[in-house]
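Run log, item B.
One chain of 329 residues. Sequence copied directly from the ordering sheet:
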Amino acid sequence: MTSSILPLLEQAIASRLHLFDPQHETAFRLFNGFSEGCPDLVLDVYGSTLVIHDYIDNPVQSLSTIQEIVSHLQSSLDWLRAGILKTRNGKTQEEKRGSLIFGEKPDARINEYGIWYAVKLTMNRDASFYLDTRELRKWLAENMQGKSVLNTFAYTGSLGVAAMAGGAAHVVQTDLNRQFLNLAKDSYALNGFPIRKSDFIAQDFFPAIARFKSTKQLFDCVIIDPPFFSATSKGKVDLVNESARLINKVRPLVKDGGQLIAINNALYVSGQEYMQTLESLCRDGYLSIRELIPVPEDLVGYKVVDKPITDPSPFNHPTKIAVLDMKRR
């Protein structure tokens, strides 16, 4: 890794100036090294906190470059109050989850489209809040008025929070990890939403879905945003080979006239492959593709130098988001 990253970084910042808010409360990708010329580094901003993701195989090799980046950004973006370095190939879990490299306290909340989200930037290897689903959160806030919503694989619940902000009548969030759901509750508190314990279900996806089916509970909208691979004693998630199977698992829970939002973030699944999967599910006439939700341009990259491993088109990013309309027999 060389210091030639600085011109690339300046170019990235210039392309994103319109994302800088005066209060420095929002979150966005400052530099996408994967597509903008330095595949070992990604820089995100959460409020006034810089989060550096270092993906290099040998982290020692990137230390001088990271120091140069930090020095440059502290000077050029003097509103940054804290910085976190997450080292994907670090030796310890603390290095992977991230450690503070400047400042005293990272931001604990961000504001997106007028909605507050709690963040805990060193809770996990990512930053506890997925930037690539920003436009989906906007869609949910605009389309869930009076609706019932089930958010599966909810993680820290941002999609459910957006639905609540849009006036959803009832939102159920389910995830295997209770710690993640507790952060969702913090987001509810930030926005003044009522917190009902029964709406936060810490349980494996497969028995949770089976329970909803056994009680014949239906929802106006079901969201399925699984990891690309996961296996527990209850079942396996494999977005490369079995995305249709997962969609079919939740399909019976969607009301007639409702929506099923299916997300596939597997890098090795092309956009055409995923579209073929969705189109095959729609052949019986009970599902139809309503729209594809784009990933924000700051996540895709403005001056794209390197293309994704597989072609995501007709989606604009390997995080492939589709809204499906549901008819029931």
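Observations after the first pass:
- The chain has a mean pLDDT of 95.
- The first helix runs from residue 5 to 15.
Flagged for discussion on Thursday.
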